Amino acid sequence: MSFRIFKINEDLKEFMPPEIIDLEEKATWGNPKRGVMDLPYSKELLEEHSLCAGCPESAAFRYILASLPNPEDTIIVNSTGCTSLVFPHIALHTVHSLFGNQNAIASGIKRTLEWRFPDKVKDVIVLAGDGAIVDIGLDCTLQSFFRQEKITTICFDNEVYANTGGQESGMTVKGHVFKMAPKGKQWDKVPMWQIAIDSGCHYVARLTVSSPKRVEQVIKKAIYVAREVGPTYVHLYTPCILEIGLNSDDGLEEMRRTDKERFKFFEYMTDAAKEVIQKKKEEGLI
Amino acid sequence: MQKTEQVQYNRAGQRVVSPEYMLFEAPRTKHFMTGSEVVKEAVKRSSVDASVSYPITPQSEAAHMIGELWVEGYVGVYFRGESEFGVMSEIAGCAMAGARTITTTSGPGTLRAMENFPMWAGSRLPIQLVLMARGINSPLSIQPDNLEVSFLLDTGCMIWHAETAQELFDMIIAGFVVAEQPDVHVPIVTVVDGFFISHTREAVMLPPDDIALPPYNPYKAPMPPIDMEMSPGRFLRDPYVMKSNYISYATHASWQFEVRAAIERSRPYAKHLLRGLIEEFGDPEGDLVFVASGTAAAQAKEATQILIHEEGVKARVVRLKTLRPFPTQELIQAVQGAKYIFVPEFNVVGWLEREVRRALYGHVDIPVIGSPRVAGGMTMPPEFIVKEILQFLGKEVKHVV
To answer: Smallest CA–CA separation between A141 and chain B, in Å?
Structure first.
């Protein structure tokens, strides 16, 4: 990409909305060392998210977008759910096509971009909810891992179908009562991070978004490994405060609590991934 | 044809020629091949960037051979997906990223993939799907039948129906050109009746294989390609699709109308490259008219010959090459003077009869008879059609089938 595509025509500048001008003046394109520390001073490619007040997903969005090492050549594929509400506000090429086909779409995009731009790095990232990735889209998710597609898959796990009104998902904890599970969920939470390892991912991490810097580290590792080795998977706990009966300012506390139990930080990497991460650390990029 | 002196080559090293030169002017040589092999020959000359495949009879062989083209360097991206649903999404990803794309499917695979087709149309992806029709379960059938076409009619894709392997070859090439017109830019489904065309050999005239269509230019598309080479403009600043307000309804409605309007705008391009949206065959004075498409039309033509030459019945065939757009005006014109319209079909529901009735209603007052109709793998020999007609006319049936 040429950075000129973000240049605003001078004659039209006075008509441009302020966030577009911010994008030209305060965004951090072209700097792989960009990160969450830029957040207070820069434009993180996201405008006016449409999620609930205090939604941890909105924080996750900001941290992830601030951490992309190559936003000027990054494509994000999303899916149906709360996440899809945010994508129209993101200043990257994003795709929403169907509920559950996100890893299939991403596979086609990644392979085509490699064919069309052999001399450029184009990162393709899937960013979708637990319903999209683990339930309806599990086939496409795992098949993309089996095929060793060089894409990063990020799951926003809120343990529920939140956008449709709070139904049980495969990621719901056993026993938890949600709609469609009026007697409580009868079976265990799907260990998606383990399935990702068994299915061929080279870097897998499970964490909450309570620590922005940790999110940045994980996202950068996942993207660099996907670029050079193969599929990577990041599982983020972004609780739906609405559906579990918390207040707008309770999200962070909920994540800190689960940091110590079922979302205790967990990281896995293959030897090939280790090598890439080591190299990037030496280059000062992680 | 070549207006500029500069000769251009595609990534496979083939000389780039205009669609008109490829389809109308290039010298052709005779080959004896199956419909599946013809798909390979068409793809080879179409500067195709990407194809994704999945096995299902009877389209598998065509998909294999696109894979061979990938090995030979004529196709840029090729792999086997996990299911037709996955494949149609993967090929959509390829098209979104700016590739000229083709894929193939049959029968149940079409329905497995179904959710993708309106998504292709709504995303304005000019993907080509070669559908080698085989019918739909249950009970399990791997026999010729084209019921799945009925399900595709309202997906927002263009649908063309080839009669022969030769026509399939020409339609695949023309299909890319028409589908990629900036004012069209919707998917194209090129249908043939499975087995009858895919698995039988016939004489096919092919242009040389060192020439190819101009490569696809994704920057002429009405929707920007997803490649971060163009401004990522936040075109949904107030994201209408995400809100329940009148703008969202109006936008969705107008977009759906626009997709259908895009199919309508394909008419002149298709007419030019297919040499008309219909073909007329038989006795021009014939008052008994078969309206048919695909293999049913081929069989009706054979029956027409028997009716004219052996039974003294003035008959003719109006063969529809395109189903979307539907050649309404051409059909109304062509059936003038007819006494009876017969619609022979290879499916149980008679989707073409429905289409014909709808097109003619209020324009001509001619009985439309949805017959003969076979399904599930039954064949439709010309004698069978002749018998049906003679019985209808109250004539003696000499041919026995």
So the answer is: 10
**Residue A199 class from Cβ within 10 Å (0-12 exposed, 13-18 middle, 19+ buried)?**
middle
Judge if B127 and B207 occupy the same domain: yes
The answer to whether A104 contacts B93, with C-beta atoms less than 8 Å apart, is yes
Please check whether residue B3 touches A, CB under 8 A: no
CB pair distance less than 8 Å for B85 and A101:
yes
Identify the DSSP state of A172: S
Measured in whole angstroms, the distance separating CA B124 from the mean position of its chain's CA atoms is 17
pLDDT of residue B237: 46
Chain A residues with CB inside 8 Å of B237's CB? 17, 47, 88-89
For residue A73, the chain B residues in CB contact (below 8 A) are: 228
Chain B residues lying within 8 Å of A101, measured CB to CB: 85-86, 89, 92, 116
> Which pLDDT tens digit goes with each residue over A5-57?
778 889 988 998 887 888 888 888 889 999 999 999 998 888 778 889 999 99
At B7-63, the pLDDT tens digits run: 899 999 999 999 999 999 999 999 999 999 999 999 999 999 999 999 999 999 999
B195, B219, B243 — which closes off a domain?
A: B219
Mean pLDDT (chain B, rounded) = 94
Q: What is the pLDDT of residues B203-238, one digit of tens each?
A: 999 999 999 999 999 999 988 899 999 876 554 445
Place of tokens 């207040």: A247
Question: Per-residue confidence at A198, pLDDT binned at 50, 70, 90?
Answer: very high
CB-based contact B239 A85, cutoff 8 Å: yes
Which chain B positions have a beta carbon within 8 Å of A120's beta carbon? none
> Which residues of chain A does B239 touch, with a Cβ-Cβ cutoff of 8 Å?
50, 85, 88-89
Domain final residue, candidates B189, B219, B249 = B219
Asked if B300 and B290 touch (Cβ cutoff 8 Å), the reply is yes
Say if CB A225 and CB A202 are below 8 A apart. Answer: yes
The residue among A235, A234, A236, A255 whose CA lies nearest residue A244 is A255
B257 lies in some domain: no
**Contact yes or no for B82 and A88 at CB 8 A:** no
CATH of the domain at B294: 3.40.50.920
Close Cβ partners of A53 (under 8 Å, ≥ 6 residues apart): A248
Is there a domain that residue B164 lies in? yes
Compute the nearest-CA separation of A85 from chain B (Å).
Answer: 6
Which residue is closest to A51 within chain B, CA to CA?
Answer: B242
Residue B62 maps to a domain: yes
Task: Look up the domain containing B76 and give its range.
Answer: 15-219
Classified as helix, coil or strand, B10 is coil
Q: Has residue B345 been placed in a domain?
A: yes
All structural domains of chain A, each given as residue ranges with its CATH number in brackets, are: 3-282 (3.40.50.970)
For B290-300, what is each residue's pLDDT tens digit?
Answer: 999 999 999 99
d(CA A201, CA A150): 10
Q: What is the CATH number of the domain that holds B174?
A: 3.40.50.970
Using CB atoms, pick whichever of B97, B234, B237 lies closest to residue A109.
Answer: B97
Q: Is B292 found in the same domain as B211?
A: no
Total domain count, chain B: 2
What is the pTM assigned to this prediction? 0.96
Question: Cβ distance B187 to B121 under 8 Å?
Answer: yes
Residues of A in contact with B219 (CB under 8 A): none
CA atoms within 13 A on the CB side of B229: 16
**Which chain A residue is nearest to residue B243, measuring alpha carbons?**
A85
CA distance A228 to chain B (A): 19
CA of B85 vs chain A CAs: smallest distance (Å): 8
In this structure, of A160-174, B1-15, B87-101, the range with the lowest mean pLDDT score is B1-15
